[in-house]
Amino acid sequence: MWSDSLLVGTVTDPQLYTRLQTVKGWIFVAVTAVMLHLLIRRHTRILQQSDEALRESEKRFALFMQNLPGVAFIKDAQGRHIWANSAFERILGTGWFGKTNEETFLAGTDARLTENDRMVLTTGQPAEMVEATELKDGVRYWLTHKFPIQVREGVPPLLGGVSIDITERVRVEENLRRSEDRYRRLVESSPQPMAVVMNGKWAYVNSAAVQLLGARNPEEVIGKRALDFAHPDYHEMIRREDRLSRSGKKETVYIEFKAKRLDGQVIEVEVASIPITYQGRSASQVVFRDITERKNAEAMIRHQAYHDYLTGLPNRSLFSDRLALALVQSARNKQMLAVLFMDLDQFKVINDTLGHSVGDDLLKCVAERLIRCLRKGDSVGRMGGDEFTILLSGLKCPEDAVVVAQKILGVIRRPWQVAGHELRISASIGIAVFPGDGQDAETLMKNADIAMYRAKEQGKDRCQLYSPSIGSST
Question: Is the whole-model pTM more than 0.70?
Fold first, then answer.
């Protein structure tokens, strides 16, 4: 090194030269130690920051999972429960940890429960299924989404699952099926609403048909046009089926339509029309069945499947469908649309201090205000808890979404009269705009959620447009 050459050229005393070499060595060691110390401190600080960010992310995820309205769980590769959310514990108590399905549930549990677990872990693919478990309070039915969780390479995956209790829906469907089965058996052996139609008019009705049609006696029905008892929307269909029945083809015609009773009530009926000979003339024997209850139940089930049970707003599934359709239309028309992700700021305080019933009433009021302050073509949904999403289509620029968001914030700030309490809350709104902030529904929802959390970090009661810098920092 140049320092050695310099010492050799300037120092002639060997002892002095040796001492200087020693000093130079210690200086090098000291400088190296200081640099290593600084590098270690910097690396430690980076690790601490990363640990804090990871802990915060895990905390948010844990809160999210614990507050899911459905049941969430994780099992190891041997099928033992190793984690579950509070909804799971409310149903099964606290003795589930480390237990398999056979050890957790009673004997009446569906044997396919464990088979489905193995199938998901074997194929490595998520799956959705309906499963039954027997608990102390009876059998419950679940719509379950199971998926593998690969923790790290070379380690058997865990099994994650989220379940929604559909027991009531299954029971309604089962009751409907049983009712229909009983009816079919009774048709063969018991009197049913029956009538004979000749030349488009009632020629005969039994007592059950008299009651079904809202009459007091057969004379109020016989001789009148059968078409007069059908809702006008179904007249053409009934005429077509009547022509088919009188064409000479010996086949039974089944139709469903709305019937108008003599007392004005409208009911849903299923009719089987059978060609017969009545009093030596061609006629049709008609067998009625009132299916109003079934139709109402089907409508209720369809509504529950796609709407939030509390507010009646579209749930995540329906909102995602609407967003996907709006994306196709916006891309075709080369227009912008925006997804707004809104979270109420002080809702937890109200829930904790005034109770969940007041909180639920407040959520209903929020839903009503949101609907009133949006355009007819916009859509609002509830994701769960105090989180709402809004779909705005036909925008000219991102600022149009900001204007709507500010309007919503103003509406939320207004006092709320709920269960005798005057409440004041605010909201934080994140905005993601198509096409700049995402090309698909999942990305737009995620980015709007990220922007919403940034709005909360900045002091709440505000809106925030998504930007790539927010996403990268998150």
Answer: no
253-257's contacts with Cβ under 8 Å and 24+ in sequence apart are 256/291, 257/230, 257/231
Over the stretch 387-398, which tens digit does the pLDDT of each residue have?
A: 999 999 999 999
Dist CA 315 CA 325 (whole Å) = 16
Q: Are strands 387-395 and 379-384 parallel, antiparallel or unpaired?
A: antiparallel
How high is the mean pLDDT of the chain?
Answer: 82
196 in Cβ contact with 202 (< 8 Å): yes
pLDDT tens per residue, range 301-336: 887 888 888 998 999 999 999 999 999 999 999 999
Q: How many CA atoms lie within 13 A of 150 on its CB side?
A: 8
Which among 299, 315, 316 has a CA at the least distance from the CA of 307?
A: 315
Would you say the C-alpha torsion 104, 105, 111, 117 has a positive or negative sign? negative
